[in-house]
Amino acid sequence: MPRQPRIDIPGLLQHVIVRGIERTEIFRDDEDRNNFIARFNRLLVDTGTDCYAWALIPNHCHFLLRCHGTGLSRLMRRLLTGHAGYFNRRYHRSGHLFQNRYKSIICEEDPYLLELIRYIHLNPLRAGLISQLEELDSFSWSGHSVIMGKQNMEGQSTDTVLGLFGKRLKSARANYRQFIADGLAMGNRPELVGGGLRRSQKESLASGKIENFDARILGGGDFVDELQRETPLVTGQGDRMSLDGLQEQIVALYDLTKEQLKRRGRKNLVSDARALFCYLAMTELRITGADVGQFLDVGSSSVSRTVRRGEKLFLSKTVLQAWWKALKQ
User: Fold this and answer.
1) So what CATH class is 197-328?
2) pLDDT tens digits, residue range 155-190?
3) 33: which of 142, 160, 250, 300 lies 20 to 30 Å off by Cα?
4) Coil, helix or strand for 66?
C-alpha cells in the first residue's frame, strides 16, 4: 500500500515500532541493549520527550511516546542512526539495519493510553523471552521493571504512569501490577498494533456503521475528525481528491462509464471497480461512509461490506497499489 506522510504534531501520543531488516536481530547481547537504552534515555532527557512504555525484543522494539518541542522524526532519526552506526562498527557490517522506516501510530489517549502501556510491557512475555510475570518485574529490557522500582531510568515518565493508579506509591505500584497481570489472558491484542478500519473500529465493522478513520491513527471517528480539523490528513501534494475525481480515475482504469460504476452487480468488473472506489474513498480520501453511500445511492451497511472487499482486492494486487501511488505523485 502506498505510504502516507507521518502525522508529527507535538503533544500527541504515539506508539512507535522499529523492526530489523528481514527480521534480523538489532540487539545481539546486553552490551547492544545497554548502549541503545543509554542513547534513548539521553535523547528523552535532552528533548523533553515523555516515554510511558518501552520494550526491547531481539529483532524489534516498541515505545509509547509524547514529543513536545522536538518532533518524533528528529528523535527517531538520532536514535536509529546512532544505533545503526554503533552496531555496524561493532559487528563489521554495512548497509541498513532497520526495516524501511519505523512505524508510528497516533493514539487516542483516553481509551488507549493504559492499554498500550500494558500491551508494550507484556511484549517480552508474548515473545517468549521470559515465562512468567515475576520475571518481567526485574526484566532489564522493558519499562515495566522501571515502574516496579527494580531499575532506574531518568527519561521514563514513571511518576506519570503510577499517578494513573493511585496517589500513594505502594498502592499505585500494586494497582499497576495487577492491571498488567489482568492483561495476561488477553492474548496478542492485534487491534492495538495499528490504526484504521480493521483495528480501531472492529465494533463499527460488525455493526456496519463505519466512522471516519485513518490508517495512521488508532482511535474513533471523532478523534480523526478533530485531527483533520487541526491538520489536513492528505497524501501526496495538492488538494484532496473529490469523489467525482476518484470516480473519473476508477472508470478510466476499468474502462467503464460513470453510470456503470453506480450500477449494482455481483463479482465482475463493475463490482471490483465499486469495491476499489469505496475502499479508496474511505481509507485514502477519508470520506465518510454516509457520503460515499449517498454518492453511489446505497446504504452505509452496503458501503461497509464493499469496503472490506475493496481492501482485499487492493492489497492483493500490486498493480493497483502502483497505479494509486503513481496517481498521487
Assistant:
1) mainly alpha
2) 999 999 999 999 999 999 999 999 999 999 888 887
3) 160
4) strand
Q: What is the CATH number of domain 13-186?
A: 3.30.70.1290
Look at residue 2 in the predicted model and tell me its pLDDT. Answer: 43
Which regions of 20-112 does DSSP assign to beta strands (E)?
A: 50-57, 60-66, 103-107
Count the neighbouring beta carbons within 10 Å of the beta carbon of residue 265: 12
Surface-to-core class of residue 275, CB atoms within 10 Å of its CB (0-12 exposed, 13-18 middle, 19+ buried): buried
> What is the model's pTM?
0.71
Measured in whole angstroms, the distance separating CA 4 from the mean position of its chain's CA atoms is 12
Residue 6 is predicted with a pLDDT of: 72
pLDDT of residue 148: 97
Nearest to 311 by CA among 270, 278, 269: 278
Question: Each residue of 217-242: b (16+ CB within 10 Å) or e?
Answer: bbbbbebbeebeeeeebbbeeeeebe
Per domain, the residue ranges of the chain are 13-186, 197-328
Q: Which residue from 103, 96, 72 is spatially nearest to 4, judged by alpha carbons?
A: 103
Short-list 91, 95, 100, 24, CA closest to 60? 24
Please give the grid coordinates belonging to residue 236. Answer: 501526496
Q: Do the domains at 13-186 and 197-328 have one common CATH topology?
A: no
User: What pLDDT is recorded for position 251?
Assistant: 86
240: DSSP letter: P
What is the pLDDT at residue 19? 94
Q: How many CB atoms lie within 10 A of CB 66?
A: 20
Mark the ranges of the chain whose per-residue pLDDT is less than 50.
1-2, 197-198, 234-238
- CB distance 329 to 285 below 8 Å: no
How many C-beta neighbours within 10 Å does residue 40 have? Answer: 24
Q: Which residues pair with 106 in a beta bridge?
A: 14, 217
